[in-house]
């Protein structure tokens, strides 16, 4: 996630860093969101659902529950870095920004100011599992062995405490077996897992000869919905990782996000895109609470617009998600779920009567001798053909140096 002050949109973004916040009026922030909300088809989607009854776990740097656009919607889970943070207070910048994109409800008259999230009626389960440079404990976070398993513990906690969707706007270049197992555990419990594809796409020293960025984990684990970032115009944002882990993409350049202390930033990053897709997944789960994670992923794929001509490419995956279309796709996929439709009870699927005896069809006695005769004749014909070929070759040898036979 790359941040810029909301009143300094022309300032260059610094990869992986935060700029000093610049105050912006909350209603100006909503205005900045409008074009992105239009791209996602949010007005149509919100006529169907706003995510009520769904919990999205934000396993991140922590979320400020008193931020005006999130107040009343955040349940603060355990701090997986409690020993590392001892005696310090985390800033919770990144996690608050991601939570606002997912479930911000705005504030002020009619909630018309501040950030409106993709699923504004969803609840956030905040689990702190990563540090950020602004934290006083960041140096310890970078060197502590306890931090290595924090994300995995956070995923398992979320899966065991009611999360319908887990957002992982984080990643690293190396696989972590505990994280892989935790993600498998969560998906096995029916939780949709969404993660950022990574922000190394414009770092030439990290790309291979074909321009592919390193695979980022947990985005690259099986079953995870890996999200790339697009910029206005729907093309891949230059910083977004290009590789075959990418499943779908979403706007990730110039997104307003909320921050503790009533401040707002404009942010770039696949972190933001991941949060957007987690919000859309929350809308799907609100409409279809028991939909399997694989079908939620399929609904997202079927919703995409501005996709590559071949149907898929490693830049944007299957294309840019669209919330209203995703809900429509989920409706059609719901009929394919186990138990959906008007299926008969298990005891009646093959008829109500007990199965009768299997009919035995007798084989005439002359069948076996006929089969033997056919086989013998076939073998004899093959032997004769080989003998003729050998005789012909002896009478008509191929001249030395002649090329092998070729089709006419």
Key traits:
alpha/beta; Rossmann fold; single chain; transmembrane; 408 residues; elongated
Kindly describe this structure.
There is one protein chain. The chain is α/β, with parallel strands linked by helices. It has one domain (2-7, 18-334): 3-Layer(aba) Sandwich (Rossmann fold), CATH 3.40.50.200. It is 33% helix and 15% strand. It has helices spanning 26-40, 42-46, 82-85, 93-103, 138-143, 150-160, 177-188, 270-287, 293-303, 323-334, 367-395, and strands at 2-5, 55-60, 74-79, 105-107, 113-116, 123-128, 165-168, 192-196, 225-230, 248-251, 253-259, 263-268. It has a 7-stranded parallel sheet with strand order 3-6-2-7-8-9-10, with helices on both faces. The protein has a 3-stranded antiparallel sheet with strand order 1-12-11, sandwiched between helices. Strands 4-5 form a two-stranded antiparallel sheet. Helix 6 packs parallel to helix 7 (177-188) and helix 8 (270-287) crosses helix 9 (293-303). 47% of the residues are buried. Mean pLDDT is 86; it is low at 6-23 and 398-408. The active site is at 60 (charge relay system), 94 (charge relay system), 271 (charge relay system). GO terms for molecular function: serine-type endopeptidase activity.
CATH class: Alpha Beta
The named CATH superfamily: Peptidase S8/S53 domain
Q: Oligomer, anyone?
A: single chain
How much of the polypeptide forms β-strand, as a percent range? 5-15%
CATH topology: Rossmann fold
Tell me the Rg in angstroms.
30 Å
What is the rounded distance between the termini?
63 Å
List the uncertain runs: 6-23, 398-408
Return the structural class: alpha/beta
- The number of distinct β-strands equals 12
Q: Helices and strands, in N-to-C order?
A: EHHEEHHEEEHHEHEEEEEHHHH
- Helix amount, in percent? 25-40%
Number of helices: 11
The overall number of domains is 1
Query: Do you know the CATH architecture?
Result: 3-Layer(aba) Sandwich
Protein name: Peptidase S8/S53 domain-containing protein
Organism: Actinomadura darangshiensis
Family: Belongs to the peptidase S8 family.
Keywords: Hydrolase, Membrane, Protease, Serine protease, Signal, Transmembrane, Transmembrane helix
